[in-house]
């Protein structure tokens, strides 16, 4: 009889432990293959799964969307800024919200890196989402997951695709200024450089072209494309691939001297609508950044064919963009007892 009581005790303890693990953020278990890179079923899920907050904070995604709706209605450009924030986070130490950390005694902020300085934005929107989530579910939803949810929500609210988003990332206690300077592709990248930087993150050419399609929304500063207008190859001549009328229009926005912070839409035809016009513009010589244009003219791999395919078929682009966003969101996440769930996204606890 005593043995039976002990055995029952073990069973009850095991059941309760399993229940707590399901409800507790941070104890991430990968159910099946959900959240695998590229959305492939059966591949490792790194402890991320879409139902991660089902018990601990079931209202999390509704809270994120409610803040996004207001922020994007007020400033449509914000959708692109939040999408870019997730991208710039994942390419440095993985998707761990390191980009959100401010300077402190122990942190040199990634916000000061060359790709981020005077450029990344949307931090106040993330702060607002975090504050509302802390109110509803204290110390439960990570800043890294907020970035991933904000990127998806921004895409959807701009008319783009949705995807089943694996969750359960935790937040880093460190940042890396040097990695931010070295890993984020610069706007004047060659195609080979882009492919190399994406491969470093486990992303291939298909991911490169599909994720570049995120430039269908948003703007870029004059400083990022000035070289194409005035000195593309060090010979004081413009980039010959630029369509002539488009070139003159850009010159009026971006003078040879000064005006570095003047902005131009990445997709001037529909700058706040998530569609496939970005790829059509590249085919017409109207891609804004060198890193956009080389997808067509770089003569490496299959990027030209992919640009043409996505220009022709928006649905194909949307499907691949969703897959590649899931894959990117799986870059080296912190799970289980690694990292922490920050109370304030700008500071370690």
UniProtKB/TrEMBL annotation:
<feature type="disulfide bond">
    <location>
        <begin position="90"/>
        <end position="95"/>
    </location>
</feature>
<dbReference type="InterPro" id="IPR000823">
    <property type="entry name" value="Peroxidase_pln"/>
</dbReference>
<feature type="binding site">
    <location>
        <position position="216"/>
    </location>
    <ligand>
        <name>Ca(2+) 2</name>
    </ligand>
</feature>
<keyword id="KW-0732">Signal</keyword>
<keyword id="KW-0964">Secreted</keyword>
<dbReference type="GO" id="GO:0042744">
    <property type="term" value="P:hydrogen peroxide catabolic process"/>
</dbReference>
<feature type="binding site">
    <location>
        <position position="92"/>
    </location>
    <ligand>
        <name>Ca(2+) 1</name>
    </ligand>
</feature>
<feature type="site" description="Transition state stabilizer">
    <location>
        <position position="84"/>
    </location>
</feature>
<feature type="binding site">
    <location>
        <position position="110"/>
    </location>
    <ligand>
        <name>Ca(2+) 1</name>
    </ligand>
</feature>
<feature type="binding site">
    <location>
        <position position="94"/>
    </location>
    <ligand>
        <name>Ca(2+) 1</name>
    </ligand>
</feature>
<keyword id="KW-0376">Hydrogen peroxide</keyword>
<comment type="function">
    <text>Removal of H(2)O(2), oxidation of toxic reductants, biosynthesis and degradation of lignin, suberization, auxin catabolism, response to environmental stresses such as wounding, pathogen attack and oxidative stress. These functions might be dependent on each isozyme/isoform in each plant tissue.</text>
</comment>
<comment type="similarity">
    <text>Belongs to the peroxidase family. Ascorbate peroxidase subfamily.</text>
</comment>
<dbReference type="InterPro" id="IPR019794">
    <property type="entry name" value="Peroxidases_AS"/>
</dbReference>
<dbReference type="GO" id="GO:0009505">
    <property type="term" value="C:plant-type cell wall"/>
</dbReference>
<feature type="disulfide bond">
    <location>
        <begin position="222"/>
        <end position="254"/>
    </location>
</feature>
<dbReference type="GO" id="GO:0140825">
    <property type="term" value="F:lactoperoxidase activity"/>
</dbReference>
<dbReference type="InterPro" id="IPR002016">
    <property type="entry name" value="Haem_peroxidase"/>
</dbReference>
<dbReference type="GO" id="GO:0046872">
    <property type="term" value="F:metal ion binding"/>
</dbReference>
<keyword id="KW-0575">Peroxidase</keyword>
<feature type="active site" description="Proton acceptor">
    <location>
        <position position="88"/>
    </location>
</feature>
<feature type="signal peptide">
    <location>
        <begin position="1"/>
        <end position="23"/>
    </location>
</feature>
<feature type="binding site">
    <location>
        <position position="267"/>
    </location>
    <ligand>
        <name>Ca(2+) 2</name>
    </ligand>
</feature>
<feature type="binding site">
    <location>
        <position position="89"/>
    </location>
    <ligand>
        <name>Ca(2+) 1</name>
    </ligand>
</feature>
<dbReference type="GO" id="GO:0020037">
    <property type="term" value="F:heme binding"/>
</dbReference>
<feature type="domain" description="Plant heme peroxidase family profile">
    <location>
        <begin position="47"/>
        <end position="349"/>
    </location>
</feature>
<keyword id="KW-0325">Glycoprotein</keyword>
<feature type="binding site">
    <location>
        <position position="185"/>
    </location>
    <ligand>
        <name>substrate</name>
    </ligand>
</feature>
<dbReference type="GO" id="GO:0006979">
    <property type="term" value="P:response to oxidative stress"/>
</dbReference>
<dbReference type="GO" id="GO:0004601">
    <property type="term" value="F:peroxidase activity"/>
</dbReference>
<dbReference type="InterPro" id="IPR019793">
    <property type="entry name" value="Peroxidases_heam-ligand_BS"/>
</dbReference>
<feature type="binding site" description="axial binding residue">
    <location>
        <position position="215"/>
    </location>
    <ligand>
        <name>heme b</name>
    </ligand>
</feature>
<dbReference type="Pfam" id="PF00141">
    <property type="entry name" value="peroxidase"/>
</dbReference>
<dbReference type="GO" id="GO:0048658">
    <property type="term" value="P:anther wall tapetum development"/>
</dbReference>
<feature type="binding site">
    <location>
        <position position="98"/>
    </location>
    <ligand>
        <name>Ca(2+) 1</name>
    </ligand>
</feature>
<protein>
    <recommendedName>
        <fullName>Peroxidase</fullName>
        <ecNumber>1.11.1.7</ecNumber>
    </recommendedName>
</protein>
<keyword id="KW-0349">Heme</keyword>
<keyword id="KW-0408">Iron</keyword>
<dbReference type="InterPro" id="IPR033905">
    <property type="entry name" value="Secretory_peroxidase"/>
</dbReference>
<dbReference type="InterPro" id="IPR010255">
    <property type="entry name" value="Haem_peroxidase_sf"/>
</dbReference>
<feature type="disulfide bond">
    <location>
        <begin position="57"/>
        <end position="137"/>
    </location>
</feature>
<keyword id="KW-0560">Oxidoreductase</keyword>
């Amino acid at each position: 009889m005593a043995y039976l009581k002990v055995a029952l005790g073990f069973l009850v303890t095991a059941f309760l432990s399993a229940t707590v693990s399901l409800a507790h953020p941070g104890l991430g278990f990968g159910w099946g293959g959900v959240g695998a890179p590229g959305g492939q079923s059966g591949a490792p899920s790194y402890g991320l799964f879409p139902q991660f907050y089902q018990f601990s904070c079931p209202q999390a995604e509704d809270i994120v969307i409610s803040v996004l709706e207001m922020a994007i209605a007020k400033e449509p450009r914000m959708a692109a800024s939040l999408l870019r924030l997730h991208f710039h986070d994942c390419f440095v130490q993985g998707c761990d919200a390191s980009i959100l950390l401010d300077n402190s005694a122990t942190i040199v902020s990634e916000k000061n890196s060359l790709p981020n300085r005077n450029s990344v934005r949307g931090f106040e929107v993330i702060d607002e989402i975090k504050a509302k989530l802390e109110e509803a579910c204290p110390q439960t939803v990570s800043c890294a997951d907020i970035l991933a949810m904000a990127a998806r929500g921004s895409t959807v609210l701009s008319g783009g695709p949705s995807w089943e988003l694996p969750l359960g990332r935790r937040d880093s206690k460190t940042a890396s200024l040097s990695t931010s300077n070295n890993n984020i592709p610069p706007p004047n990248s060659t195609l080979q450089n882009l492919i190399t930087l994406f491969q470093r993150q486990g992303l291939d050419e298909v991911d490169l072209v599909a994720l570049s399609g995120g430039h269908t929304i948003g703007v870029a500063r004059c400083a990022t494309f000035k070289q194409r207008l005035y000195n593309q190859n060090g010979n004081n001549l413009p980039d010959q691939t630029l369509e002539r009328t488009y070139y003159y229009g850009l010159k009026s926005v971006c003078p040879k001297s000064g005006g570095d912070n003047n902005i131009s839409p990445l997709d001037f035809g529909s700058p706040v609508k998530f569609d496939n016009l970005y790829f059509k513009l590249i085919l017409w010589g109207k891609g804004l950044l060198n890193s956009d244009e080389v997808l067509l003219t770089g003569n490496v791999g299959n990027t030209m064919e992919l640009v043409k395919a996505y220009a022709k078929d928006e649905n194909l682009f949307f499907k691949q963009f969703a897959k590649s966003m899931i894959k990117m969101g799986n870059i080296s996440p912190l799970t289980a007892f690694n990292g922490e769930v920050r109370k304030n996204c700008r500071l370690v606890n």
